[in-house]
Amino acid sequence: MSELIEQLRAALPADAVRTDPDVLRSYAADTAGFCPAGRPAALVLPRTVEQVQHVLRTAHARQVPVVPQGARTGLSGAANAVEGCLLLSLVRMDRILEIDPVDRIAVVEPGVVNARLSRAVAEHGLSYPPDPSSWETCTIGGNIGTGSGGLCCVKYGVTAEYVLGLDVVLADGRLLSTGRRTAKGVAGYDLTRLIVGSEGSLGIVVRAVLGLRAQPPRQLALAAEFPSAAAACDAVCRIMAAGHTPALLELMDRTTLRAVNEMTKMGLPETTEALLLAAFDTPDPVPELRAVEDLCTAAGASGVVPAADPAESELLLQARRAALTALEAVKGTSMIDDVCVPRSRLADMLEGTAEIAERYGLTIGVCAHAGDGNTHPTVCFDAADEDEARRARESFDAIMELGLRLGGTITGEHGVGLLKKEWLARELGEVSLELHRAVKAAFDPTGILNPGKLF
Amino acid sequence: MSELIEQLRAALPADAVRTDPDVLRSYAADTAGFCPAGRPAALVLPRTVEQVQHVLRTAHARQVPVVPQGARTGLSGAANAVEGCLLLSLVRMDRILEIDPVDRIAVVEPGVVNARLSRAVAEHGLSYPPDPSSWETCTIGGNIGTGSGGLCCVKYGVTAEYVLGLDVVLADGRLLSTGRRTAKGVAGYDLTRLIVGSEGSLGIVVRAVLGLRAQPPRQLALAAEFPSAAAACDAVCRIMAAGHTPALLELMDRTTLRAVNEMTKMGLPETTEALLLAAFDTPDPVPELRAVEDLCTAAGASGVVPAADPAESELLLQARRAALTALEAVKGTSMIDDVCVPRSRLADMLEGTAEIAERYGLTIGVCAHAGDGNTHPTVCFDAADEDEARRARESFDAIMELGLRLGGTITGEHGVGLLKKEWLARELGEVSLELHRAVKAAFDPTGILNPGKLF
Fold it and tell me: CA-nearest residue of chain A to B162?
């Protein structure tokens, strides 16, 4: 062990190799519940590509597992330590190397925080759309590792669609460049996309070329109240079938609304069974908002509140932003799921989740990126109550099973990590799983990169 | 040999296994120049997934190479026969299985022609954007194999962005399902994107779930004439830097314009050194077209012609659509390249291509998806003139070298096939190439799928 540390320190500054037990403990896990974390041998905090290569070469020579980490805001345990591993934190590699408004790209290191990049490109009239809830703290490297989404996806897609090229340190320390700086390119296999969402199991991202968009106008929103979740889901289907492409289309169920009211005293209508938020960021969003209002009314909305201006839109969105914290407050602990179904099955997903909540005697609030069919059923429980915690875990699994039954996926944007690895096997099936293992072996034959995650 | 045919016929109708030499010859190659084609052992034309599985099982057992084909409109030799292979044509698997306006997806077989799908989804108010020039004849399976683009890409991206999930018959006949039917999903490695653009070297696509968009309004275009290619490229940079996102942004150089004039008698201004076409498909494109007109003028445009309506826009685009045929007519044969550079280097790419034309004593016309930096330098030559043909091939290579030097890629949308395999190795470098080989081995350990293509 001390030999390992010595070897690491040969090419890394002293403060970049940490072994203090308190520090190791505090870095050992991400934000997921129900995921075990092992005891790391050390934490390394490199600042350069060469330092990352040294770490990997050292780990590879000694066959020590390496677990890469960003801000550890992940929700699946993908960044949790495995026993005796090196925790490889990329947070100190946080430079924005380039922003180019003509080529509409940014070149960044993995430790750049999402919000910092978003603000930096905004100064050039550009936008980096992916906006996970944790955007103020999560890193681009973490977003790439998990394939993050956010509210923007219904119009602007997920992280993967903005990653044009990567520099990746391989398991043995070699440097791989994938992809391109150009708008298009089909030279060879799409290794870039293979790395995105691979949760550090194929290589360590040390640099990314990201595609940017022109900054859209500020969005204008409306809120629509519905007497049932089914009616809100019907509105979602009508909106999408009519050819609208909102910049966001979010749903909150009654449980979520009550939790938000309780916490924020916003005074949302307590009788509402579901609230839909729709926003458009086109040059003139008013006609589309009016059409959406009519579609909501046709689907049975009991009331529609259009925002007068972007500031009022922001107020409407605050309830949505408060949802997870509010649900967490209900029973002290919450566990957020991430099941995505075809949007035509959204109503079935919500109905089924309500049944699961009843069956397990639990409070489960649902907020959803409804335009994508991506639901976040959030199980509220008292972690100190062993029986309730067990039921929480079981209900979580029942929700994934429901999602698969409805033609969906166990994860729309949070990833698999430790939390869902058994479920990934069920979703993929044996042929796909076998190919996953073969691809993993092609990149990391001795299996030192984030072992035991994903599959 | 006859044993192979017998075995194939055991599970395929008689007319689905062809061995007539004339038929084999006519299927032996795609549309690329300078690419050798071997003599196939047979042509198979399955209609079902099970038949494709039977073909692969048979080929795998006997270690016979398999070359998948769509409409053979490809431009890189990826669909060319290798000696003794089975040509596996997917054109009879041409059913559109599903179009769903709520989930905005289509489920199709690989032999569906691009234009047929585009028209079918338009009836539901939807759009399938990828629009390669060959869209009236090329198949979705071929588009997926090569990762096709088109005029739409500057706003709507390439084929890869519309492929959500695939059914793929593997080298040994097993069936792999990748991806999803949902708008989002990050369950496991992105095998879907790995298959897209892999030119049949990893598996045979037998079904695809495609993402669709709402149909945009009909586009309105303008044409701008420039006294130099550099000025036109400057306009492209100004347009993109100002935050515009045209639905297309196309450039034609003087050589192309003269060829089009010669063929079509359109009466384009012969003094123009470069013509830029820009179009917008927003609800109100007029303000953006005016802004683009001003930017073109500022970049030195000698004249700008805005279309009065979509019909006039269509007339403006006819010159662009005629470009390749017109260049082909110059000397009887043409060879189209596909180098994509960062759009900030577009002027350097055009200038360098003009120098190459002069150095090799050849006519090279350039049309470009300028908004993407994707140039199609087209070498015009007399194939009967051995020396000219040799110079044509050499100039083609010089163009790729130039593209790489400018930070570009050897292929923006046409693929690698046989034509560019040496160049792919140069673009990727040894580490990436080694991983490509390992990924190939993970999918096709015995190497029967489209051997000798790509790398």
Answer: A161
Of B126, B184, B373, the CB nearest to A183: B373
Strand bridging mode B66-69 / B86-89: parallel
Which tokens sit at B191? 């095998």
Inform me whether the pLDDT recorded for A1 exceeds 70: no
* Chain B residues lying within 8 Å of A245, measured CB to CB: 213-214
- Min Cα separation A279/chain B (Å): 17
**Helix (H) / strand (E) containing A80:** none
Task: Name the pLDDT band for B392 (thresholds 50, 70, 90).
Answer: very high
Burial letters A409-448, b for 16+ CB under 10 A, else e: bbbbbbbbbbbbbebbbebbeeebbebbeebbebbbeeeb
Contact residues for B79 (Cβ-Cβ < 8 A; gap 6+): B29, B30, B67, B68, B69, B70, B72, B142, B200, B417
Residues on chain A touching B373 (C-beta within 8 angstroms) = 103, 182-184
Q: What is the mean pLDDT of chain B?
A: 96
Count chain A–chain B contacts defined by CB atoms under 8 A: 262
Residues of B in contact with A432 (CB under 8 A): 176-178, 188, 191
> What ipTM does the predicted assembly reach?
0.97
For chain B, give every residue range classified as CATH 3.40.462.40. 220-405
Mutate to test the interface with A, among B104, B163, B184, B190 (most CBs of A within 10 A): B184
- Quick one: closest CA in B to A155, which residue? B213
pLDDT tier, B266 (very low <50, low <70, confident <90, very high otherwise): confident
User: Are the beta carbons of A407 and A343 closer than 8 angstroms?
Assistant: no
| Helix axis angle, B386-405 to B346-360, nearest 10° | 160
Q: What is the pLDDT of residues A41-61, one digit of tens each?
A: 999 999 999 999 999 999 999
Contact between A452 and A204 (Cβ < 8 Å): no
**Cβ contacts of A412 on chain B, cutoff 8 Å:** 182, 184-186
For residues A403-421, average pLDDT: 97
Interval B47-97: pLDDT, tens = 999 999 999 999 999 999 999 999 999 999 999 999 999 999 999 999 999
Nearest CB to B186: which of A126, A176, A411? A411
CATH 3.30.43.10 residue ranges in chain B?
2-89
Cβ–Cβ under 8 Å, residues B112 and B120: no
Q: Which of B103, B244, B342 has its CB closest to that of A214?
A: B244
- Give the separation between CA B210 and CA B109, rounded to whole angstroms: 11
**SS3 for A206?**
strand
Rounded CA separation B299/B277 (Å): 14
What stretch(es) of chain B map to CATH 3.30.465.10? 96-214
Query: Chain A interface, mutation test: which of B154, B189, B194, B400, most A Cβ atoms within 10 Å?
Result: B189
- Report, at the CATH architecture level, how domain A220-405 is classified: 3-Layer(aba) Sandwich (3.40)
Top-tier CATH class for A2-89: alpha beta
Yes or no, beta carbons of A184 and B372 under 8 Å apart: yes
Distance CA B161, CA B138 (A): 18
Nearest to A188 among B174, B371, B454 (CB): B454
- Asked if the Cβ–Cβ distance from A409 to B187 is below 8 Å, we say yes
What CATH code is assigned to A96-214?
A: 3.30.465.10
Closest chain A residue by Cα to residue B234 = A102
pLDDT surpassing 90 at residue B125: yes
CB nearest to A102's CB, from B240, B412, B431? B240
> What Å distances lie between residue A242 and A236, A295, B48, B208, B302, CA to CA?
10, 9, 34, 24, 43
